[in-house]
């Protein structure tokens, strides 16, 4: 029998959680924090159950927009728990049981030693495992991957000083972080009556195949007084996800989900003996220091949970022929001079982007799928191999653009593969985007087709880099049989896509793969834990890229964030310096009409690449900071810093209309004797003044628009 006063305490020196079992044995997560902190009172009814589940027949106790406070969740009882180690990871498994339905839930928490980050998972990418031990089929409609009802502790006033964080993410305008008060009304402000549970909560959800279209699959909560900050991410490569955050019983809570019925029409039958696994999620804590501290923890966690690859250390410079350059119109005649110019600038990879397969005079959109080279674009006897040989001859690795999941309705592949190899609903293939079908990677014929394409490009053509793009969203999902909800089929495809990518990299371990979907429409950790780079945007305006480049490390590690640097012949020298500076604290993606630049502009490009190569060894260990706060879309001044073993690097942008001077705050250098050097451009007239007592750097840039990369070094600087 469960002891009603028993508390499960688990963790390590950077993170500790407490689970109270309560009077009826319903486990509740009552504290997540650092060792020694006082927990909330695990009284019955507060905070929330450890696992929240709704089915077709069992909903919630208190109706509203939330998916918490479920009848089944409150009936799940503690059966057992065990703490183990898996290498550097601490693992806690809590098994729950509900005897009436026969439902068993196994919640597994993992945390890397020394990091204040909690990951909910089972096996590789699963967080909660549900096993139906009853005799009847349960129809699941929502399952919380993580339910944390104790974020602000037991102080009823704490939610009033908390700000909710979320990131809007649109095409050409990615990673736009927003904030607002978590609670707009409280007992302290709104009169005599005290309500513990509202009807509403803040909900952010994704739909379709793009995991980050509309919003990043992330959120956070930060206390304006103490700086205590939580950040969470949903590690799912499709749009079937949701998080909610609100106040329950005077404490802030968050609940993180994959697909569910309310947002996605998801329903999953759980027959006796079957299993279902939710998508994994992670929760990071900074006890003080605000969002910068939590993003630093999340950055270290992302590095600890991704597939190892040599690209993460080498950080080669990439030239891509698309952006503000060929724009999908490559030919042998156009590419050969670009290859020479890219090699001269110091590029180490050269990627031929969209259009290399197009023999249809611009009608390629509805004919793609076979991924064979155009003979009209590459008319010589060797075809495209003349260009690929030219890339290798100049010491660069050739790359190609590919949109693997798309098959045009007029493609021979659409006729060769069975209907079941594509997204279908109501027995018909789904056509989307003006002439596109979407492959369902659960089907062996779809997998075999794409495996053959990739193996041919790598083994026979010598391709060392693939840019995988995705530009259409086929909607709610796919049904492989009439009883399957489309959202359940989409979840199956998402998981099959991850398995397919693992298979590619198992066969081709040195292949570098860039993740792209109309820029940043698939910016999620499920894909980034496997793929080496992330396209941050399709933004073509160099003056609109700074807020994207500066905020990208909130979603992707600096060494994986690909940022375009595309100087144009019509740009001023200050603008050339700005577009090159955009990429210096990420991954340089050179583009633009470089061969037409003046000699002075070309020198600025060469200088930027040389500076990047001199600092890139520091980037894989660097942690991001934002000396002016997270950037706003129209902020006149923007700054991104990286705390690295070799010092602190800061890129600062002064945009049109900004005052010439800004004050950058770098609290990790408080009290230090700092020297600030201009790394790029060497011709900059930047003036700096360091204030050790306040950790402020006064920076003056006489011209606008322009940007500068600084290196701040101090003998007394704290380690990163």
General description of the model:
The chain is α+β, with helices and mostly antiparallel strands and 720 residues long. It folds into three domains: 7-304, alpha-galactosidase from lactobacil brevis (Beta-galactosidase, Chain A, domain 5); 311-535, TIM Barrel, CATH 3.20.20; 624-713, Sandwich (Immunoglobulin-like), CATH 2.60.40. It is built from 14 helices and 41 strands. The strands form eight sheets. Strands 5, 6, 7, 8, 9, 11, 12, 14, 15, 16, 20 and 21 form a twelve-stranded antiparallel β-sheet that branches. Strands 22-23-24-29-30-31-32-33 form an eight-stranded parallel barrel. Strands 4, 10, 13, 17, 18 and 19 form a six-stranded antiparallel β-sheet that branches. Helix 6 (332-345) runs parallel beside helix 7 and helix 13 (573-581) runs parallel beside helix 14 (599-615). The protein is globular, with a radius of gyration of 26 Å. The model is unreliable at 39-45 and 122-127 (pLDDT under 50).
Quick summary of this structure?
The chain is an alpha+beta fold. 19% of the residues lie in helices and 31% in strands.
């Amino acid at each position: 029998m469960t002891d009603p006063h028993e508390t499960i305490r688990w963790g390590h020196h950077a993170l500790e959680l407490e689970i109270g079992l309560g009077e009826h044995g319903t486990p509740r997560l009552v504290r997540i924090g650092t060792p020694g902190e006082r927990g909330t009172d695990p009284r019955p009814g507060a905070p929330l159950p450890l696992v929240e589940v709704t089915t077709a027949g069992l909903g919630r106790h208190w109706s509203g927009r939330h998916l918490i406070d479920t009848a089944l969740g409150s009936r799940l009882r503690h059966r057992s728990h065990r703490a183990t180690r898996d290498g550097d990871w601490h693992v806690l498994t809590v098994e729950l049981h509900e005897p009436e339905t026969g439902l068993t839930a196994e919640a597994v928490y993992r945390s890397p030693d020394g990091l204040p980050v909690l990951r909910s998972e089972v096996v590789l990418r699963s967080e909660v495992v549900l096993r139906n031990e009853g005799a009847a089929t349960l129809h699941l409609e929502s399952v919380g991957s993580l339910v944390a009802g104790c974020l602000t502790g037991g102080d009823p006033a704490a939610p009033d000083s908390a700000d909710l964080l979320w990131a809007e993410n649109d095409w050409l305008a990615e990673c736009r972080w927003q904030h607002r008060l978590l609670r707009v009304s409280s007992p302290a402000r709104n009169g005599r009556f005290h309500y513990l549970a509202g009807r509403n909560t803040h909900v952010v959800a994704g739909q379709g195949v793009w995991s980050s279209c509309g919003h990043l699959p992330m959120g956070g909560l930060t206390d304006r007084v103490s700086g205590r900050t939580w950040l969470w991410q949903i590690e799912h490569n499709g749009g079937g996800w949701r998080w909610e955050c609100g106040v329950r019983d005077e404490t802030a809570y968050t609940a993180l989900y994959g697909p569910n019925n309310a947002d996605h029409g998801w329903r999953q039958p759980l027959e006796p003996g079957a299993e279902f696994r939710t998508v994994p999620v992670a929760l990071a804590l900074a006890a003080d220091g605000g969002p910068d501290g939590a993003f630093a923890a999340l950055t270290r966690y992302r590095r600890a949970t991704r597939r190892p690859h040599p690209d993460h250390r080498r950080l080669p410079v990439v030239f891509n022929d698309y952006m503000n350059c060929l724009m999908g119109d490559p030919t042998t005649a156009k590419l050969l001079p670009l290859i020479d110019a890219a090699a001269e600038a110091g590029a180490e990879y050269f990627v031929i982007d969209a259009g290399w397969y197009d023999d249809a005079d611009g009608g390629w959109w509805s004919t793609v799928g076979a991924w064979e080279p155009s003979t009209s674009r590459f008319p010589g006897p060797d075809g495209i191999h003349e260009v690929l040989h030219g890339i290798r001859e100049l010491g660069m690795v050739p790359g190609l653009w590919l949109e693997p999941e798309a098959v045009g309705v007029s493609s021979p592949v659409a006729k060769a593969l069975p209907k079941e190899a594509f997204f279908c609903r109501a027995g018909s293939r789904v056509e989307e985007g003006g002439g596109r079908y979407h492959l369902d990677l659960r089907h062996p014929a779809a997998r075999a087709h794409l495996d053959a394409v990739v193996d041919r490009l790598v083994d026979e053509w010598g391709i060392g880099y693939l840019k995988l793009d995705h530009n259409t969203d086929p909607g709610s999902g796919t049904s492989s049989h009439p009883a399957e909800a489309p959202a359940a089929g989409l979840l199956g495809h998402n998981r099959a896509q991850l398995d397919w990518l693992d298979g590619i990299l198992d066969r081709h371990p040195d292949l570098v793969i860039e993740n792209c979907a109309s820029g940043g429409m698939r910016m999620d950790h499920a894909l980034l834990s496997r793929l080496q780079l992330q396209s941050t945007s399709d933004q073509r305006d160099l003056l609109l890229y700074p807020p994207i480049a500066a905020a990208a490390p909130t979603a992707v590690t600096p060494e994986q964030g690909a940022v375009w640097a595309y100087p144009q012949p019509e740009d001023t020298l200050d603008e050339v310096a700005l577009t090159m500076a955009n990429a210096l604290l990420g991954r340089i993606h050179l583009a633009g009409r470089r061969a037409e630049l003046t000699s002075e502009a070309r020198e600025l490009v060469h200088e930027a690449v040389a500076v990047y190569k001199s600092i890139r060894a520091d980037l894989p260990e660097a942690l991001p900071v934002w000396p002016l706060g997270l950037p706003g879309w129209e902020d006149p001044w923007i700054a991104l810093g990286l705390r690295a073993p070799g010092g602190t690097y800061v890129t600062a942008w002064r945009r049109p209309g900004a005052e010439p001077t800004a004050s950058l705050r770098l609290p990790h250098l408080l009290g230090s004797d700092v020297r600030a050097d201009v790394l790029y451009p060497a011709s900059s007239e930047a003036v700096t003044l360091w204030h050790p007592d306040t950790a402020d750097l006064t920076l003056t840039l006489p011209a606008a628009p322009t940007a500068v990369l600084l290196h701040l070094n101090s003998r007394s600087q704290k380690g990163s």
